[in-house]
Amino acid sequence: MTEVIGHERQRRFLAQKPAQSLLFVGPEGVGRRTVARWFAYGLNCERGFPPCGRCASCRMEHHPDLFEVRPRTLTKTGQAARKPQIHLDQIAPREGAEETSLLEWLQTAPRFRAKVGVVDGAHLLGEAAGNALLKMLEEPPEHAYLVLIAPSREAVLPTLSSRSLTVGFGPLPEGELRRLTGDEAALRYSEGAVGRLKAALADPAGLAEAESAAQDWMRALAEDPAALLAQTEELRRLAEGPFDPWVFVARALGDWPPEARRKALEALLAAREELEAYVAADLVYTRLALTLRRLYAELRSGSTVPR
Length: 307
What we know:
Strand content: 5-15%
CATH architecture of the largest domain: 3-Layer(aba) Sandwich
Number of domains: 2
CATH superfamily of the largest domain: P-loop containing nucleotide triphosphate hydrolases
Largest sheet: 5 strands, parallel
CATH class of the largest domain: Alpha Beta
């Protein structure tokens, strides 16, 4: 059973079993998945909430009454999917399907007390898959619970979000994360997300590489566009790994004057939203680099130049 860091208020609320259909929303890495698993263990624990960690159910490393569905990142031919998606056959049974679907699994009796189906990435449900979930959300079996995980309520199909009780999760206070480490670089990178903190602790060299690349990119703003775009490609490569170098870019903008910093952060946010909407990555990164280069040039021509 995985230890949960923080989110005491949410866990007290969930221990009351407020609904059978729940929607966990919040930023990536803050612990939504971990709490969903904690909820499944608590429902099946002999002593209830919080799960004791000692009974037969709690000692299960891979709990038989927990079923997690995630977006597929590969096509049927094994190629990288342009847009990860949760497909209909993952949710509802289809003739000839090789894997058990979520709905047919939920219909069977639990080994212990309750079955918990987790849809991780509910905002990536295809319309057909989302519609297949509706009946289960409206009339779940007595023993069945559904937890949808998404960045926000608005990102999920309205037919699903309106039938689920929303539970919000935010970044954890630094004091909570210091229970895990005193590594200042990892704590700065985490920005309250325990998942990001654990990734940083697992690969400090990778974290340092991402930070160094971000610093090089900031310096490249003063160079010609070709040099900047070459460094941008390096950041794009690193961003596909476990670390997000753009976090360090955003932090470096703290030296800019307020108005210029606001415009730069807006450009970073717009780029992130475009990438999440699967706009062509090369176009997104090129536009972002040239936008920040223009802002930097405006600063350099004035009285204040960021160091």
